[in-house]
Amino acid sequence: MTFNGLLLYKALKELKKFKGYSLRQIYQSGKNNFYLRFQWGTFQISVNPRYPFAFLRKGNDREPSTVSPLLKILRGKLNGATLVGVNQPALDRVFELRFQRRTPFGEVERHHLFVELIGPASNIVLTDDELKVIGLLKKRVTEKRTLLAGSHYSFPERDGLDILKMDWQDFLKFIEEREFQTREIRVLGFDRKSLDNLFSLMSLRRDQVLSRDEAKRLFKGLKAIGESLENTDVYFVSGEEKPWISAFYIPGARKMELSAAIDALIESERKKEEFKALRDAILRHLNKEVKKLQKLIDKLTGEIAALSDYEKYRKMGQLLTANLYKLKEKRELLWLEDWESGEKIQIKLDPQLTPSENARMFFKYYNRSKRKVIAVNKRLKKLQPLLAYYLDLQEMFKIADSYEDLAALRSELEEIGILRRKTAKKQKKKKDNTAIGPKSFTFRGYKYLVGRNHIQNDEIRRRAAADDLWFHARNIPGAHVILKTAGKRPGDVEIKYGAYLAAIHSKGKLSGKVEVDYTKVKNVWKPRGAHPGMVLYRDYRTLIIDSSEEDFNAESE
C-alpha cells in the first residue's frame, strides 16, 4: 500500500476539525498501530513498514491494546492535552501534531508529535516545545539526521515541486532547470503510480521532452489537483491485481470516503496475507517431501556413479581365469594382456588369496554391483516421475488464487498420503475439502471445466465425451481444461477462450504469452502407472495466448 502525501493531506484536513478538542485516550495495537481518541472519533496511525497510513476513523471502535515504552510516554505527556495545531510540510508524508495542557500548578506544557510515514523508515517521535526528543518508536542515526532521545528533531529533507504554493514562474523555472524532461520531474506528495496516472490523464509520457504548451497544460493539471485536495473524498482502484487509492480522479475508480477506502484496502491486504499464510502452511508439507525425495534421488544417483565402472571387474575376472594356467603364486600385482585391445592391463590382487580366488572375488563383485545398479535404476525410474509430479504440484500451489483451489489441492495431498486426512469429527464441523469440484465457466453457450488439482484433471478428462476439447499449457504446470461441445462444433473464438482458461490457470499466467495445446479428448490418454494429471496426447494444435491482452465476457459458475 502506498499512502502518499496527497492522501495524507486529506486525512489531516479531517483531523483539523478536532483542533481545540482534548485527547481523551491513546492506545496501541501490536507494534505499529497507534490510536488517538478524541470525543468524536479516533485518529489511527500505522507505521507498519509495508503499509503505513493515517486517517480519521468514524466512531471509537477499540482494538486490543498493547503496552510499549513509547505508549507510556505518550500517555504521560499527551492524555488530556488539547490539539492546537496540525502541520504537513510541503505535502510530505510527514506531519506534526501540536498539543498543549495545563499542569496542576497552572503552567502550560507544549509537546509536538511527529509522524513519518515513509516505508521502512516510518516512525513516531514526541518532542518538547524546544523540539528535543522525549520518546520515539525507532532510533535512527544517518549522515543527515539523528533520532535519539535527547537529540533535536528536524524534518527529513525533500526535493520537488510544491503544488500548493507554486505559481507559473516557479513551475517554469523548475522544469527549465531540468531541460523540460518529464523523467526528471519530482512532485511533492506524489508517489510513482499517482504521477504516472497524472501523466496519462494529461496525455503525456514519463520519458519525453515537454513543449511549452505541454508544460502549461501540466502546470494547470497540477494546480487543479492541488485545488481538489480540499475535498476529502478519494478514489478506490480495485480492477488491478493490487488495489490502491488515488487522491484525484482515476477513470473507472470508485469514489469513497478516505476511511472506507483504507478499510477496504487493509481488508484486501489482510485477506491476501491470510491466504498466503494458509497456502504456505499446507505447502510446507509438500516441500518437506520434495526435499526428502530429492535427497534420496541424489543419494541413489551417487551410488550408481560409484558403481559406474563395475564392468571392469568382469574383465579382470575373465583375464585372470584365462591365465590361471600360468599363475601359480599368490601375488599383489600383475600385468595381463587384454585380448580385445592388445593392451597390457594392471590388476591389483589380494595377496592373501590365490589367483583363482581373486578371479571369483572379481566375478562376485561384478554380479553384486550389476544387480545393485539394475535395482537402483529401477527405483530411480519410479522416483524421478514422482519428483516431477511433486514439483508440478508445487507450481499448482503457487498459481492457486482462491480458498477453494487450496482446499482441492489439500485434498490431493491427503489422497496421496502427504497430509493426514481430517477425522470424521472435524469433517462434521467443517465442509470436507474433497467435496469442492472443478471450476466451471460459461461462454457463448458452451461450458468449460477447469481442474483445481491433478485428481480433478484426471476426473474431468475421464468424464468428458470423446469429441469434447482438451486444453493444457504447453510444457509447463497447469490445469486441464475441458470444453464441453455437446455435439456441436465450437468456433475459433470458443476455442480461443478454452486456451485462455488453460493459460491463466498455468504457471505461465504472469509471463505474458503462453503456448497452449488443444485436441479432442479421444486423443488424450494416461500411460499405465502414471501419476495423477500426467497424460500423453496426439493430433494437437497450438495457440499462443497473451493473457494480459485477452478480454472475454464470460461467466463463472
Task: Summarize it.
The chain has twelve helices and 25 strands.
Supply the key terms:
alpha+beta; elongated; 25 strands; 557 residues; ibrinogen binding protein from staphylococcus aureus fold
- Characterize the main sheet: 7 strands, antiparallel
The low-confidence parts are 424-434
Instruction: Specify the overall morphology.
Output: elongated
Mean pLDDT: 89
Instruction: Label the structural class.
Output: alpha+beta
Q: What is the name of the CATH topology of the domain at 5-147?
A: ibrinogen binding protein from staphylococcus aureus fold
- Secondary structure: helix percent: 25-40%
What is the CATH class of the domain at 5-147? Mainly Beta
Total beta strands: 25
Give the termini separation.
31 Å
CATH architecture of the domain at 5-147: Roll
**Beta-strand content estimate:** 15-25%
Strand order of the biggest β-sheet: 24-21-19-20-18-17-25
Which homologous superfamily in CATH is the superfamily of the domain at 5-147?
ibrinogen binding protein from staphylococcus aureus domain
Secondary structure blueprint with pairings:
Layout: H1 5-15, E1 25-29, E2 33-37, E3 41-46, E4 53-58, H2 69-78, E5 82-87, E6 94-102, E7 108-116, E8 123-128, E9 133-136, E10 140-141, E11 146-147, H3 168-177, H4 192-201, H5 212-228, E12 233-237, E13 244-246, E14 254-257, H6 258-306, H7 311-322, E15 333-337, E16 344-348, H8 355-399, H9 403-415, H10 424-429, E17 439-443, E18 446-450, H11 454-463, E19 469-473, E20 481-484, H12 492-504, E21 513-520, E22 524-525, E23 536-537, E24 541-546, E25 555-556
Antiparallel strand pairs: 1-2, 2-3, 3-4, 5-6, 6-7, 7-8, 8-9, 10-11, 12-13, 12-14, 15-16, 17-18, 17-25, 18-20, 19-20, 19-21, 21-24, 22-23
Helix pairs in contact: 6-8, 6-9, 7-8
